[in-house]
Structure to design on (333 residues):
């Protein structure tokens, strides 16, 4: 009998039905399909109807996960929501989601780690399961990025989409589950990817709105270089300290921010195409949603089976860096 680990026992996801293509964005900003495809790998993304909050898309993903596991929300102990687009600054989206789900005995909180949010939340949730404190933890990555996009800024608005994913963590001792993680923060990265207004440093005023400071801003080139370096570094670290190498990886599931970042990490890890999930063409960058959505794509394509060794990796605003080593437990799909 091996150590009790947090196993992923269900996966749910949701993207809103409205598809926005690169051609659609050509009508809004000075951009073109060729630039977006070749610089990012994105062909389309999904958008919510305006006014749809993050808790709503998270709700769909959670219900999907619970349905697939065949349990009710009243069995949940804890709900962790990773998001940078909470319904409001407070209460936490986890509280609003707890109510919508009817998860009567669950407590919950939000995690703010941008594109690394899902991995931070996943490994946090795993601690509660491994210590025996909880038996059913729902980890959600959800973002309505359209609520913070500036549709006058072509450098950012073409990159993102809306979407949500949720996984259920439960204890198990069959050797599968979250095996290890390594996370980093480099707060000196703040100026390169941020939303300046709306917090205590720059409370929202008429002036901040006029200056469009309530939208996401990015210095893409700087973030790109950091992401290329760190995505590979964190992946190799979780492998090497477990005596593994790229050759032991069955599937590499990376945050989907730019196809060129994923390709560079794939090359460093020495992985063939069939061991790397890429779905950025369909969804764009959904921030906390990308990794569970990518796991969903892997299941859709029959590329994920019980016992597989997975490396999950992310780089995001903060800067935040996340890495996790997972032995896949198998889920109903
Ligand atoms: O998920 C969180 C972490 N985020 C990331 O990992 C994103 C990392 N960064 C990136 O993915 C890339 O830096 C971008 C895709 C954002 C940008 O690609 P790039 O190759 O770094 O382009 P750039 O920002 O250096 O811009 C190159 C040119 C510029 O024109 P000039 O100055 O060379 O004349 C931009 O103005 O491309 C121009 N440009 C565009 N052109 C058409 C920028 N955005 C667009 C656009 N359409 N949408």
């Amino acid at each position: 009998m091996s150590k009790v680990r947090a196993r992923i026992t269900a996966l749910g996801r949701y993207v809103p039905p409205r598809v926005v293509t690169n051609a659609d964005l050509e009508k809004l900003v000075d951009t073109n399909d060729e630039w977006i495809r070749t610089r990012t790998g994105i062909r389309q993304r999904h958008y919510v109807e305006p006014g749809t909050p993050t808790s709503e898309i998270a709700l769909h993903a959670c219900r999907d996960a619970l349905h697939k596991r065949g349990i009710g929300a009243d069995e949940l102990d804890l709900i962790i929501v990773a998001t940078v687009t909470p319904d409001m600054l407070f209460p936490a989206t986890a509280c609003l989601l707890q109510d919508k789900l009817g998860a009567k005995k669950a407590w919950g909180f939000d995690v703010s780690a941008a594109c690394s949010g899902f991995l931070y939340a996943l490994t946090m949730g795993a601690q509660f399961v491994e210590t025996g404190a909880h038996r059913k933890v729902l980890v959600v990555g959800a973002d309505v990025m359209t609520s913070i996009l500036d549709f006058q800024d072509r450098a950012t608005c073409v990159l993102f989409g809306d979407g949500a994913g949720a996984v259920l963590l439960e204890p198990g001792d069959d050797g599968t589950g979250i095996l290890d993680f390594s996370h980093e923060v480099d707060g000196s990265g703040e100026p390169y990817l941020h939303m300046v207004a709306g917090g205590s440093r720059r409370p929202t005023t008429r002036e901040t709105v006029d200056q469009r400071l309530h939208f996401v801003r990015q210095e893409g080139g700087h973030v790109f270089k950091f992401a290329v370096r760190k995505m590979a570094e964190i992946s190799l670290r979780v492998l090497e300290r477990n005596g593994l190498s790229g050759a032991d990886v069955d599937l590499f599931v990376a945050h989907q921010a730019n196809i060129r970042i994923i390709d560079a990490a794939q090359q460093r890890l020495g992985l063939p195409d069939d061991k790397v999930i890429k779905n950025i063409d369909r969804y764009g960058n959904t921030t906390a949603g990308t990794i569970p959505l990518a796991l969903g794509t892997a299941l859709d394509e029959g590329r994920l089976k019980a016992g597989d060794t997975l490396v999950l990796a992310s780089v995001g605003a903060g800067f935040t860096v996340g890495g996790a080593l997972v032995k896949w437990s198998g889920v109903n799909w």
User: Anything to note?
Assistant: The pocket of oxa(dethia)-CoA is lined by residues 31, 35-36, 39-40, 115, 154-155, 158-159, 220-221, 223-224, 227, 257-258, 261, 285, 315-316 (CB under 6 Å).
